Recover the amino acids of this structure.
């Protein structure tokens, strides 16, 4: 399962979601600016407030690190 913690105003969040759509990966998108419980969950996982945060089957990546995300998803570049 892929879960993205994002905000509507974050350009890296948009890029991350476009990347996953291009690669045909389904994901749950949670807007932490609108969902206080999700924000608390994200901070508990990462210790910080920066977005995007992507949780791939329990592996958490802060920011749009294309190389790490691709590796976790088994995408060959």
């Amino acid at each position: 399962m892929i879960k993205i913690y994002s905000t509507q105003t974050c350009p890296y969040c948009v890029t991350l979601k476009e990347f996953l759509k291009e690669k045909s990966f389904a994901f749950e998108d949670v807007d932490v600016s609108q969902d206080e419980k999700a924000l608390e969950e994200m901070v508990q996982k990462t210790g910080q407030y920066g977005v995007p945060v992507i949780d791939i089957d329990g592996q958490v990546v802060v920011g749009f690190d294309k190389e790490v995300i691709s590796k976790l998803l088994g995408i060959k570049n």
